[in-house]
Amino acid sequence: MSKYYCLIAGLSEIRAEEYKLQYNLEEFKEVLRINLDKKDFELVTLFYRKYDNDNLLAFLKNYDFKADPRGNITAEAFAELVKLLKEQESSKDKRFPEYYREFILGYLTDKPIIPDLSWEDQLTTLYFEDAIKCGNKFISSWFEFNLAITNIFTAINCRNYSIELAGAIVGSGELAEMIRNSNAKDFGISQLFPYLDEVMRIADESNLLEREKKTDLLKWSWIEENSVYQYFSVENIFVYLLQTEIIERWMKLNQEIGNKVFKEFIDKLRGSFLFPEEFKLNK
């Protein structure tokens, strides 16, 4: 397993008094592309692939679309793939995840891969299933945790508004299937998902901004609890990516709300991404 002492030790701490980050997600992607070995960068691309998924859907709806620069795949590459699949359905291209071929062919022929789900949710399901099988315990667990939270919130909203669960829950794992088919108050998953009570309390929060903040704090706590002693590894880099995403999102709020919420939020996170003093380059 590769170690990235200089890269990780050189990452600055997030400070409450500085409303900025050392790198945004787009910039950090290019830093990682240069510094990580091939297999580790492939793991990192799992994080960025959600932006590729959004770009793919936008491309299929309108070839003349504006791509999210945080993705890895260009509009030109998408065009090449679609053209290739139209000419030869069995073709493969290592630049793309394997499930893109299945999804694009289904979309172009209007044959759903997963009945009852929207095209967006079908792609999300394929994405999570692929990421969970990545072979890295920490990264796989993160995707399982994130998927669980998403499905629990969705299930609660469905119950509150009498919406059919079958067409709303994504993923095909045990937790997703139990949520999809359970009438129990706890969806039958309290023994499988120890964060259920906290997620359900957050779902009861009427203030949407406060709900988002509490959800991000829960995710941050999970990240910290599950990344202990992961210094200088690709897991450590993935942690930094996840935390950067959270901070970047709050910094993009409008000035009046964003500054107040961000400062309250960051005060709780201060000092949570620290390295041994002897390894710090920018003290």
Q: What features would you highlight for this structure?
A:
283 residues, mainly alpha, 0% strand
Describe the structure.
The protein is mainly α and 283 residues long. It has one domain. It contains twelve helices and no strands. The chain has helices at 5-9, 25-35, 38-61, 75-87, 98-108, 119-132, 137-160, 174-181, 196-203, 208-226, 234-251, 255-269. The longest helix is centred in the first third of the chain and has 24 residues, at 38-61. 25% of the residues are buried.
Look at the helices and sheets and give the structural class.
mainly alpha
Please tell me how large the radius of gyration is.
20 Å
The description of the largest β-sheet is: none
Basic shape: globular
The tally of strands reads: 0
Count of structural domains: 1
Mean pLDDT: 85
Strand content: under 5%
The poorly predicted ranges are 14-19, 271-283
How many helical stretches? Answer: 12
Brief synopsis:
Helices cover 60% and strands 0% of the residues.
Reconstruct the topology from this structure.
Elements (H helix, E strand, L loop, with lengths): L4 H5 L15 H11 L2 H24 L13 H13 L10 H11 L10 H14 L4 H24 L13 H8 L14 H8 L4 H19 L7 H18 L3 H15 L14
